[in-house]
Design brief:
The protein is of the alpha/beta class. Strands 1-2-3-5-8-9-10-12 form an eight-stranded parallel barrel, surrounded by eight helices. A two-stranded antiparallel ribbon has the order 6-7. It is globular.
């Protein structure tokens, strides 16, 4: 059972002062968070790609590369790379470079993206949303599997017998599929034999169990060894020494961030009742003291089949010291509890 962290490197107004941290400062803070995650024994750190004012990381590979030379063991991934609006050649080169700098610790989490700002920015038509992803994923996998590539598609100039460099340390370079939970996306991942990441940020995580089974059936039918295909989840959360402190610290920035997105997307108002319901044992928020969060992750492993858990923290802008403390508790107290319990449970299966 792998445990890690994901972040979107947000730069929203502070809920108390109204001040907005600079992109530069927040990016430097995130590198420090990755370094700490490595020091406390976490397995994976993911940085999401966005192209808007309230998110600082438009280039996850660069952020992760900054942390590569300061870390030793932790794996470094995008979360996600918006592949539909990216050039797969450049994506592969960036992460192959990261893989070299980290000596084989890079991963790509490819997704269509739930934000659309990158499409007009890079000149793509949203009407081609799904077609772009399928075509570019095909090319990315070709680049991963072959040094010399020939390829032709409908949205990018063809490639004929060209080499793409540098080559990664890992062979193959891991490519995961990020999914918001649609049947089509999990079936695609299964048929391709690619690891799956589910964004479990609302409702009951147990409702994702049928999707995991669908993914595994699709993989088995395509001839892949299901036992070698990990399934990850990405969920919002926060850890403090006691549960009420964790909830009181995490709610204000979460409410602010969720309501900003809610106004853009037509969601209902996010209030404390919604928050408290989501942090119940069956909810999708992993907020509490180390034991509370550990038990929820163990529950997810046993009942949904998740083999990698990524705590998304912060949501909105929180004090850097609080985020660092949450990462420390995740690595030093939550992860050991989860690994021990899951190891015992798996031995009995």
């Amino acid at each position: 059972m792998e445990i890690g962290v994901s972040t979107f490197v947000e730069t929203t107004p502070d809920v108390v002062t109204g001040k907005v941290i600079s992109h530069a400062q927040r990016l430097r803070e995130v590198v420090d968070e990755i370094v700490l995650a490595d020091q406390v024994g976490l397995d994976i750190f993911g940085v999401g790609e966005h192209h808007r004012k309230d998110y600082a990381a438009s280039s996850p590979a660069v952020v992760l590369a900054a942390a590569a030379s300061r870390t030793k063991r932790i794996r470094l991934t995008s979360a996600v790379t918006v592949l539909s609006s990216a050039d797969p050649v450049r994506v592969f080169q960036d992460f192959a470079t990261l893989d070299a700098l980290s000596n084989g610790r890079a991963e790509i989490m490819a997704g269509r993206g739930s934000f659309i700002e990158s499409f007009p920015l890079f000149g793509y038509d949203l009407d081609d949303y799904n077609e772009l992803f399928e075509e570019k994923l095909e090319l990315l996998l070709k680049l991963r599997d072959s040094e010399i590539v020939s390829w032709r598609g409908g949205h990018r100039p063809a490639i004929h017998q060209l080499g793409v460099y540098p080559r990664p340390v890992q062979n193959p370079l891991p490519v995961w599929i990020g999914s918001g939970g649609t049947r089509g996306s999990v079936v695609r991942a299964g048929m391709l034999g690619l690891p799956l990441v589910l964004a479990i940020i609302g409702g009951s995580p147990l409702h994702f169990a049928p999707l995991v089974q669908l993914y595994k059936r699709a993989a088995a039918q395509a001839g892949h060894d299901v036992s070698k295909l990990p399934v990850a989840s990405h969920s919002h959360g926060f850890i403090a020494e006691d549960t009420e402190t964790a909830a009181d610290k995490f709610f204000p920035s979460t409410q602010q961030a969720m309501n900003v997105l809610g106004r853009e997307r037509g969601w209902g108002h996010y209030d404390r009742n919604s928050f408290d319901a989501a942090r119940s044992f069956e909810g999708a928020l992993y907020v509490g003291d180390p034991e509370t969060v550990a038990q929820k992750i163990i529950h997810l492993r046993k009942n949904v089949g998740i083999t990698r858990f990524m705590l998304h923290v912060p949501v909105g802008t929180m004090p850097h010291d609080d985020v660092m403390k949450a990462i420390e508790l995740l690595g030093k107290e939550v992860a050991p509890r989860v690994r021990e319990e899951v190891s015992k449970w798996e031995a009995q299966q």
